[in-house]
Amino acid sequence: MAVVGGAPAALAVEQCRRLGFDGDLWAVHPNRDDLAGVPCVPTVDELPGVPDAVLVAVNRQATVDVVGRLAAMGAGAAVCYASGFAEAGPEGRALQRALDEAAGPMPVVGPNCYGTVSAVAGAALWPDQQGLRRVERGVGLVTQSGNIGLDLSLQTRPMPVAHLLTLGNQSDVGIEECLEALVADPTVTAVGLHVEALHDVERFATACAAASQAGKPVVALKTGSSARGAEIAASHTSSMVGSDAAYEALFERLAVRRVRAVPELLDVLHVLVGLGGLAGDRLVSLSCSGGEASIVADRCDGLALDLPAFGPERVTRIRTALGDPDKAALVSVSNPFDYHTFIWDDRERLTATFSASLAPGDDIGPDAGLLVLDFPGDGLDDRSWWPTLEAFAEASVGTGTPGVVAASMAENLPPRVEAAAVGLGLVPVRGIDEALGGIAAAAWWGRRVARGRPCPAGPVTGTTRLLDEAAAKDLLADLGVPVPGRALVPVDGAAVAAEGIGFPVVVKATGLVHKTEAGGVALGLADRDAVDAAARSVAAAGDGGHVLVESQVEGAVAELLVTVRREDPVAWLLTVGAGGTLVELLRDTACLLLPVTDEEVAEALRRLAAWPLLAGHRGHPGADVDAVVAAVQAIAGAATAVPGLVEVEVNPLLATPRGATVVDALVTVAGPDETE
Known about the structure:
Elements lengths: L1 E4 L1 H13 L6 E3 L5 E2 L2 E4 L12 E4 L2 H14 L4 E3 L9 H14 L4 E2 L6 E3 L4 E3 L12 E6 L2 H8 L7 E6 L8 H10 L3 E8 L5 H14 L3 E5 L20 H11 L2 E4 L2 H14 L7 E5 L2 H11 L11 H11 L2 H4 L8 E2 L8 H12 L9 E5 L13 H14 L3 E4 L8 H9 L3 E3 L2 H15 L16 E5 L1 H10 L7 E5 L3 H8 L3 E5 L11 E5 L2 H14 L4 E6 L6 E10 L3 E8 L4 H4 L2 E5 L4 H9 L4 H5 L9 H12 L1 H4 L3 E12 L2 E4 L2 E7 L5
Parallel strand pairs: 1-2, 1-5, 2-4, 5-6, 6-7, 10-11, 10-12, 12-13, 13-14, 15-16, 15-17, 17-18, 18-19
Antiparallel strand pairs: 3-4, 8-9, 8-11, 20-30, 21-24, 22-23, 22-24, 25-26, 25-28, 26-27, 28-29, 28-30
């Protein structure tokens, strides 16, 4: 391994030494005799051998030359520290292209990155301090941000980190390649990703499937969002659901657990590695405080964690384990369980009580146990706290229920306690919220497997245009989407058209995107005179030439939004949600990536706040959910059936007890400019 450069390269040498790197280490500098004690040669051409990996920590122009020389001699890979490449404008982009050409087939990490650290090999191509410890196995961490990489290297959780990679501009090596390598590496137990954007979704999906097969959880912190395309700005959903929702759906599909912050990334990884995938979501919580028990109960509400009630037999066993019948009678035995203070520092009673709480039984089979325990700080007497931790560990092992210990405040689970907890077979977490989030992730991952690759959308080419409503409905009807009987006619032909369709009818203006707001819709027209008057009125709000006359759909129990659209580079994104004029106010949506199964569509509908309307609310009839699912699937079919499709927005899809019908739709397509 080699380092090229001045002070940053010397720091890398020091970090290799600190981690106990025992391979050959060479240094290159034109004017120095040594770097941190490693003798220097003036150029890479004078290295005593061909290095497997090289830290290139010189200025950006020199980086291109050094990388070219390394590639020519057959070096294994280069890590490029310098900035000022593609992130710095046109000149930088040109320089990055030159770097890629100079590297040829040699892998390049960066440029504009902080380097890589392998705590397994003791190799730190890292131009700064870092806090990793030498390990035999652990998690792999990958980030596109150098500073976040530095932060990750300094974390102090009792979670072994095997490898840390920062990728910077990803001119060559990207998130996808790193994920592949880490999943295949037997020293890696799980993978944590900080993702700004993916470049090869197909490759990413393949790597995630391999991770699921290997039993290695993948956790992703996705930051940033893409600008919305001007070509779809007319749709409601363009302001509601963007690329971030597509990534959310992608991660869900590929069994990748998404998190929102760097500490959460670490905590979820830590718990997932410690617990693995849980069989279910049933949690038993133990604390010596009713206040802490209430906090746990409140936090579980939004985390898809179940706190099952103790059955009568379990309650009896717990009261017996507590000992003193008079004192035990004062304890409210429930889950979450406040076991009170009278057994404090009584190892035997604590173990018996915890075991009775965690043991599988006819009432519940707990999937995990949580102990909330805040230790005194350094310099304070903590002797009476240890029996509780030890008793919980004994109960966890004895009952086969995985145990997590958390403090209500991070500082109250100091490193000495974390280390002891790990030695006892527990998973320590610095905070109730963090512990519950990790347990929820373990329950989620235990029932998830990668469900296959999404359908790629591909780039939009040519000029985009918005089809009028009549054309949009003709297109959807050809796909088997249920639409009303309709006729596009001159204003003076509206009454005749209505008679042919059958009353009652709806009359709509043409040339408008959002017709309701502009007065371009008239509903419930039951005779010729009403249609004539309405046609003249709504036409004035639109283009004035034609109106769309449609059969009115009656008996709707819910209005739904359904959209299908490209979300590059991810895939086709299907959105279902509460529709109508309040769609943007309600923002009640669920997103999936195509293709989807009928059950996945049905499950997405059940996640909506509007689901009770579909199911039948307070004695009102429910919708024909099978018909709704079929309509959604037919709309989704546009993604592959319509050349140049950019987006379909249906709002609303009217759900009735007897079917589902599209009453308004926007379709945006791209293709050659028709004026050419």
